[in-house]
Amino acid sequence: MFKLFKFLKKNILEIVVILVLLIAQVWLQLMLPDQMGQMNGIIAGSNNSGTGAFANASPFDVEYVKIFFGLFETSYKTAEILRNSGIMLLTALGIFAIAIVVGLMLTNTAAILGKRIRTAMYEKVNSLSLSQYDNFGTASLITRTTNDVEQVKNTYYMGLRIMVVSPLTLIIGIIRTIMVSSDLVWVLLISVPTLIILIVILLLIAYPKFNRLQIIIDKITSVFRSQLKGVRVIRAFIRQEEETQAFLRANDESLKINLRIGRLFSIGFPLINIVFNMSYLLIYVVGFHFIGGKPITGIALEISNILVVSQYVMQILMAFLMFAMVLINVPRALASSKRINEVLNVVNLVKDPQEPHNDFIKEKIGTIEFRNVTFTFPNATEPTIKDISFACRPGTITAIIGSTGSGKSTIINLIPRFHDVTSGEVLVNGIDVKEISQTVLRNQIGFIPQKPLLFSGTIKSNLRFGKEDATEDEMVEALKVAQAKNFVFRKEGQLEAAVAQGGNNFSGGQKQRLSIARALVRKAPIYIFDDAFSALDFKTDAALRMALREYAKDSSVIIVAQRVSTITNADSIIVLNNGEISGIGTHDELLKQNKVYQEIVESQS
Asked: What is the pTM of this model?
């Protein structure tokens, strides 16, 4: 967990100030028992001081002197009591002021810590390759970025104060107890180790349970997320009961682990309280025993000594009780920090080069070339694609077709470096993509994913996702090419029409056309369509491809498709079979020569 505190390096001065203030707070808190002892001594002091010199005087004179000095002593006591009361009041106000300042500063640094960890998590997740992202899973990454970060932040907020105050209170309190009465310090030497042993046992038992709890929270999030996304399918197939049971199983597992943790602390806290109360009681029992008997040290004990030591013991044990309560949260925070570090410590498979070659040659903008490319997913035994070689030139349309699982999407994901090749080279404008910074490379590409995704906002904000400074004319032109202009301008608000989360207020075909328009508005030298025409009817498909050829006449266009009708007019068609190229050519050439392509065409005829 301490690794995560590196995010507070810039706030080190603020943390030092917090530590100094906490030390001052402990010192002031432990001054109060001394002041109470002094006040008790003043109140219990003798009324006979100042009359000894008149031992041989007459009874009348002695009584007169006693009355005089009694009045003087009473006045002196009152002044001393008021003075001590004022000091105690100022001390209490100082403790109060320090507590407020420390609370505000801890709140500030805790909020900053949480923000910086979440930012680092977000940036890390966005830099991971797709395979690394899939290793964690969406639900787990959401839980780690929200729930786990909150656990760490809250433990820091509570822990920094207690972890400083408790040890300091213990050390200073024991020293002051020895100074007041070393006969009573053995009570602390028994109770403190007993508390430490109890707390350590609780932590050792609790840690694996909290670790398991975080994994179960991941599972609940995953089940709930999948059911929310698949609500239409679940209802269509009347699977509500089965899916409810799946959620209840995960929820019941969470209930069981929470009950185990609750039972553990239901036993642990009373034991700690027993030690706490017994220690407090022993101070009075032993103290009053020594008042009537002979102290071990030979130094007579007074009631004020017992009261002062009892206050020290109260503060020490209370500090330890707070320490125990914070430590209860430590196992969960440790489990959370471990899960956060698992993400932050992942070594990115896709990295920017130290000296990127971002100087694209304008005459070759949009040229793509694969040279003997092989790619194997991490932990896979067999490569997904093997020895792939082909080239795409500006002004041409290259299509990729093949059976499900043949590696079509894998090939196009290598161009924007969503993955990096295992061997071989992917070249853009004659430069290996590994030697180009990811930002510059992806700025050259208009990418349309297989599953269209729109973001909550408006149609205009979604289109500007492709190009931030896109003008309205550019957006209208892109919508026109994507065959989306008609339905957009029929909507109320037109470009300002609202888009729900995920684009759920649009049909599948409309979302696909808006996703295409979002990529087209960029006017990129490379366009990649990953089966982006699948939800379109044949008429819209044909109209879009015809408009696209004119719009992207100076760009390289790669189309991954399942339907043969989508790619018949492509300049070059790459046929994939089991991760290897079975043939390259035009529709007519492949129809004559390539058996795999013939089977695909025949299956769709």
From this structure: 0.66
